[in-house]
Design a protein that fits this description.
alpha/beta; Rossmann fold; Arc Repressor Mutant, subunit A; two-stranded antiparallel ribbon; about 45% helix
């Protein structure tokens, strides 16, 4: 199973058992996400990340056994901050320490769901072995833009090569690699890769990883 097809695992970290349970329920309600564990101290959060695969941690800033800022720096996974701390300097330090999003409590449940969906898009866009400037900008934008405000852009639609790439993937019974697309439409692998990345960034295609017996996994593309 490729990384883009599997469930993204979330570690919920909050010293309030009730709040942690609410956040865990919200995570489980978002398709594509599962709760890896719920912990209530900074120390157990680090143990949970070290003992299993965690993609994203939801953490608070203030802890009885340490600083949330320090915890962010030590976590070997992505993280969102969910905290009542609303001081500007605290927010800046949290973002500098690696938080991808900062939600001030109390927040509407729909906001966390939206941020999680944005994170899933961020992960999809950044799974590629190599990305271009446009993909990076779209990945950052996915973390910050509301789905309702996100424009529907098709930068490659209407061009001969872009339409040829899209048609090749759309009509193929199986996912295609950039090299296969290039052979089908008569362009180089690098050219096909650029158009494929752009089509993925605008949700017209999906990218996953094809694992072989040896070597690096190969990127393959399919319709959403």
């Amino acid at each position: 199973m490729s990384d883009t097809d599997r469930q993204l695992s979330v570690l919920v970290v909050d010293d309030d058992f009730r709040v942690a349970g609410i956040h865990a329920s919200l995570v489980e309600g978002v398709p594509g996400f599962t709760v890896a564990a719920t912990t209530h101290t900074a120390a157990t959060a680090l143990e949970a990340v070290a003992s299993g695969a965690v993609d994203l941690a939801l953490v608070d800033i203030y802890w009885p056994d340490g600083s949330g800022i320090d915890l962010l720096r030590r976590l070997e996974c992505d993280a969102f901050v969910l905290s009542a701390a609303a001081e500007g300097p605290v927010v800046r330090r949290a973002l500098s320490a690696g938080a991808l999003a900062y939600l001030i409590k109390p927040f509407p449940p729909a906001l966390l769901a939206e941020k999680l969906r944005g994170y899933a898009r961020f992960r999809q866009l950044t799974e590629a072995e190599s990305v271009d400037r446009s993909t990076v900008e779209n990945a950052y934008g996915a973390l910050r833009e509301s789905a309702a405000r996100r424009p529907a852009r098709r930068p490659t639609a209407g061009t001969v090569t872009g339409d040829a790439v899209l048609t090749a993937v759309r009509t193929s019974p199986t996912p295609l690699s950039a090299g296969q697309v290039g052979e089908l439409i008569g362009v180089s692998r690098a050219t096909a890769q650029r158009y494929l990345a752009s089509l993925v960034s605008t949700d017209l295609l999906r990218m996953s990883l094809r694992y072989g017996t040896t070597g690096r996994p190969e990127q393959e593309y399919r319709m959403p």
